[in-house]
Amino acid sequence: MNAASTTTNSAIHDIILEMHRLEKTYWSWTQEDWLEVLCSNEEAFRKKYGSCGNCRQYILALAWLLCGFNRLEAAGCFYHYRLSVKVFGRPATEAAINKLRENMQRLGFVAADNNIRNALLLSMLCQRQVDPEKLELETLRRVIDYGPAYMRRSAATLSRIFAAMGQFPAGIDHRTRERRRPHGEYSATSNVPEEWLWWCERWRHTVVKAPSSELSTWYRILQCGRWLKHTHPDIHSPADWNRDIALEFVAAVCQMKIGQWSEPCHMYRNRIGQLMTASARAGILQAIKVFFRDLQEWGLITIPFDPVRIFRLPRSIRASIGPMPRIVADDIWSKLVWAGLNLQEQDLQYGEQLYYRYPFSMVRALCVLWLFGGLRRDEILRMRTGCIRWQNDEHQGSSRICLLDVPVNKTSTAFTKPVDPIVGEYIDRWEKERSIQPDQLDLKTGELVSYLFMHKAARISQSYINKSLIPMLCRKAGVPNEDIRGTITSHRARATIASQLFNAKEPLGLFELQRWLGHSSPSSTQHYIDITPTKLAGSLSKAGYFERNRRMVSVLIDQDAVMAGQVQQGEAWRYYDLGHGLCSYDFFEQCPHRMACAKCSFYLPKSSSKAQYIEGRQNLLKLMQEIPLTEDEQAAIENDIGAIDKLIDKLKNIETPDKKYK
Question: How does residue 549 score in pLDDT terms, banded at 50, 70 and 90?
């Protein structure tokens, strides 16, 4: 090993001291004995022995070479490269490192990342294997489970690199063993009767549902178990339920409050004690209905009631649930679109997560796809390479139509839809820069696919859009991350785009939007579209509802009479044209006989010489005046003969403006 004499003497001295203390030779020391001798780090070793130089490193090499010590993952911090050179030799160590760096560079990693290099060397030392291609997955798992905290992430990354090389079937996720299971799930089973919990576990292991649906139903039937323990402590099994207990539970759910019969987490801490929303209460009844229905259909229990009928949604709750699209206001959305189109690389430096861990071109393509694609988050993250296709526009030869292939989703099979060409342009740019990534299994279809948004042999984080991308756009656009409808999330873009397409100048119809969104029924689409007040006002104006109850009457104004001062003398100067005659009553719009003239003294027949004289005057101003109509008058002018006769009979005993009855 070419150690200096001082270091050699210190190592021999320390080993002899420990042999004396342990009262046995060093070649008979156990793995625990060696860990005690080596201490947890260099500083603790020097405090214990007062040794100089890198004495600990040489004792570690002696333990590995001569005594079969292989608990290196528990030995704390040491120089992995130096130890590998000592035991494997420099040529073999450099060859393994160079091969690793070649694959790292191919997958988009920083080749000079020493953390991944150290994870490789530690794994080689633990397995005593100089060839990295012969490393086993269990060795890396051992490093992740028992090694130092700073090494776990690098070892997991190394496993993904080996998986991309085809050495392992899949990499290791060091963060959570079951990603879909939230932290602290163990507390969800507290205060639940043991037998009820057993039935819940049996249902959970038997049912075939999406993981998220299964988990939400699981929490709600546990909540039912706590209610059962409090109200009916003698009932422990769903087989013991009767109609009265079921109806009592439905009544309890209708008044259920947040945090009741549950183990609330911190996200609901400020709302505990408030009445649950109608949709939350409906979800509880739906979960219990599914639970009892499944157990009954599987032949596991026999109950004296129909769970579908008993646990159906009460009318009071059902009436409170309906389409309520959580769209983003137009002014805020336009600012977010501007921020996405003007995104710069320096914008990726701040936030809860490390934005810059992904290439800028990838983030920009992801951003534009979210802003213009109208997709679910799962569809965005599962987008595949080659998803963009270009087609020439038959109507405009110079332009091209951008078609986007959407993968299989929760409501439809794979389909193709047109999107804005800017989506295709940015995705094409990312595909040109994207490094070669390994194919991964699509859990929804069971296929090996090449995901579009992959970097360093790993898919983009599930929470990246909501936790990083959207806050970054809000900050750049200068808008808050929340509005009156709540936090701006990935799914709200889908409702916003759908509503804008529905309210456009040349809008998409309901069935066209259903196809574009990938829904299985139009009723689902209705939950995503909201008619804007502007469009509603325009449609109402075109319908002519208010004009139906108003009519325009021609008014003749004798300007000569006005200028001559005859108005002060009580002479008529304004005449309303009734078609068959003229009316000189100044308050014509208030006259009850206006639509069925009683021909009082204010009336001038068209056949009279005075009426003809007035109409023939040159200095006559013709105007139009709007007259509101009553329901009887409205029916009369719509050529309803019966309504006309009824109106005339009704006006028989009403006096005319000249105080006479006709």
Answer: very low
Tell me which DSSP letter residue 384 carries: B
Encoded amino acid at 201, one letter? E
3-state secondary structure 193-238: CHHHHHHHHHHHHHCCCCHHHHHHHHHHHHHHHHHHHHHCCCCCCH
Helix (H) or strand (E) holding 488: none
Instruction: Give the Cα separation of 271 and 278 in Å (integer).
Output: 15
Domain spans in the chain, listed from the N-terminal domain onward: 7-78, 85-165, 194-321, 330-527, 554-652
SS3 call for 342 = coil
How far is CA 383 from its chain centroid? 16
d(CA 439, CA 456): 12
The whole-angstrom separation of Cα 536 and Cα 547 is 16
pTM over 0.70: no
Q: Residues 152-178, buried b or exposed e (16+ Cβ, 10 A)?
A: bebbbbbbbbbbbbebbeebbebeeee
**Is 312:247 a contact under the CB 8 Å cutoff?**
no
Residues 6+ apart with CB under 8 A from 249: 224, 227, 228, 288
What single letter denotes the amino acid at residue 413? T
Q: Which bin fits 472, alpha (ψ -120 to 50), beta or left (φ > 0)?
A: alpha
List, in sequence order, every residue forming a beta bridge with 487; answer none if it has no partner.
482
Any idea of the CA torsion for 592, 598, 604, 605, to the nearest 10 degrees?
130
Q: What is the CATH number of domain 330-527?
A: 1.10.443.10
Give the integer Cα–Cα distance in Å for 482 and 559.
63
Q: Are 162 and 171 spatial neighbours (Cβ–Cβ below 8 Å)? A: yes
Bridge partner residues of 459 (DSSP): 454
pLDDT tens figures, 584-619: 777 767 777 766 676 786 777 776 666 665 665 555
Instruction: Using CB atoms within 10 Å of the CB of residue 41, give its burial: 0 to 12 exposed, 13 to 18 middle, 19+ buried.
Output: middle
pLDDT in tens, 400-422: 889 999 999 888 899 999 999 99
Question: What DSSP letter does each residue of 50-97 carry, written as one string?
Answer: ---TTHHHHHHHHHHHHS----GGGS-S--HHHHHHHHH-HHHHHHHH
Task: For residue 598, give the amino acid letter.
Answer: A
Please report the DSSP string for 616-662 in residue order: T-SSEEEEEEEEE--HHHHHHHTT-HHHHHHHHHHTTTSPPTTS---
For 222, what's the count of Cα atoms within 13 Å in the CB-facing half-sphere?
A: 22
